[in-house]
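> example.struct
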């Protein structure tokens, strides 16, 4: 049983997104899963990638990890141009009648709340409409669901409906898209601000915090785990500490020791330090090594904008290295992790190094 995981770059400036393709199986019997599609441009790149490298016009499973536009927009292109077997996505607007009382607004009706959620998550709703039009079956990926060889570790349905969806409406409004020029200027400004502000971090000192938070939208990310003949693969989307801990709890129930089984892990939320902590990485990736012996037992891939100065954070990369996970970032490049799959003639992607100076906490 071979498998390969491809991370395609999303965006040209400071912004980051996810566009991931997975193929597994044996010659003549391969299956394909698309996990997030980034922007429309990266959706086109995904389609071309599947055609060129996987030599098929079919994606057996398409998964929208959560409704952010930088993850869902490109999936509409995938549904338009490829034959799709199943679409897995959450549809929070379907639960408006359940959650309306959580909002202190007497003007809200079930219908108006549903419309508000559809508008806020326009890329995700457009995906649902397209799938319905094409007759593609839609399933909701809640904890315990199976998507081919992948099992959904999070979110659990009741947590999603009664805690996360109400938080969607309270989360910050999505930022307006910036031009590439503005992206570059913002990146330069961030670099200037950070100059001279770095702080020291050693192998034995980890500066991640335990009390950080991310948005409810990010916590709703679909966390997937698959075991390919003893080689564990974990996809995390933009999940934060709450979701990752719940995923670890669920794995324990099924006697899955994630740190032992993992050979590949997606670094959550483009390497943001608001999504991970020392304790949750110990549960997911493994405990910190006492010494830096320069060896790695697993791979950690991260989607990060080519010009981004904030993704991935150096202290997050250091944390993965301490746990024996070799980190690699897209930064404008296609990157591939594979086992027993046809050679493409691609060289190994350069890994990120341990940093003695990391970004300060604001």
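> example.seq
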């Amino acid at each position: 049983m071979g498998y390969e995981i491809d991370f395609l770059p999303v965006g040209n400036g400071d912004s980051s997104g996810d566009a991931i393709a997975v193929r597994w199986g044996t010659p003549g019997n391969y299956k394909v899963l698309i996990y997030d599609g980034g922007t429309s441009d990266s959706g086109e790149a995904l389609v071309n990638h599947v055609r060129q490298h996987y030599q098929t016009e079919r994606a057996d499973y398409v998964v929208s990890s959560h409704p952010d536009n930088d993850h869902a927009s490109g999936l509409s292109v995938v549904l338009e141009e490829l034959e799709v077997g199943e679409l897995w996505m959450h549809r929070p607007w379907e639960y408006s009648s359940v959650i309306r009382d959580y909002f202190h607004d007497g003007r809200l009706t079930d219908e108006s709340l549903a419309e508000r959620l559809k508008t806020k998550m326009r890329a995700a709703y457009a995906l649902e409409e397209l799938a319905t039009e094409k007759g593609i079956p839609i399933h909701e990926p809640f904890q315990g669901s199976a998507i081919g060889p992948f099992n959904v570790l999070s979110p659990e349905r009741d947590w999603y409906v009664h805690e996360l969806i109400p938080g969607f409406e309270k989360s910050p409004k999505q930022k307006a898209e910036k031009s590439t020029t503005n992206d570059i200027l913002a990146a330069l400004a961030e670099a200037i601000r950070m100059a001279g502000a770095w702080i020291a971090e050693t192998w034995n000192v980890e500066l991640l915090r335990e009390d950080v938070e991310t948005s409810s939208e990010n916590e709703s990310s679909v966390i997937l785990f698959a075991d390919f003949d003893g080689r564990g693969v974990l996809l995390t989307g933009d999940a934060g500490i709450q979701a990752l801990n719940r995923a670890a709890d669920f794995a324990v129930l099924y006697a899955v020791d994630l740190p032992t089984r993992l050979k590949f892990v997606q670094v959550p939320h483009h390497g943001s330090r608001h999504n991970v902590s020392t304790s949750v990485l110990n549960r997911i990736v493994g405990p910190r090594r006492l010494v830096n012996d320069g060896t790695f037992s697993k791979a950690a891939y991260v989607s990060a904008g080519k010009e981004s100065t904030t993704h991935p954070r150096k202290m997050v990369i250091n944390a993965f290295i301490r746990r024996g996970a070799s980190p690699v970032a897209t930064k404008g490049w296609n990157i591939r992790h594979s086992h027993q799959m046809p050679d493409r003639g691609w060289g190994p992607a350069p890994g990120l190094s341990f940093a003695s100076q990391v970004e300060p906490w604001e």
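> remarks
The radius of gyration is 20 Å.
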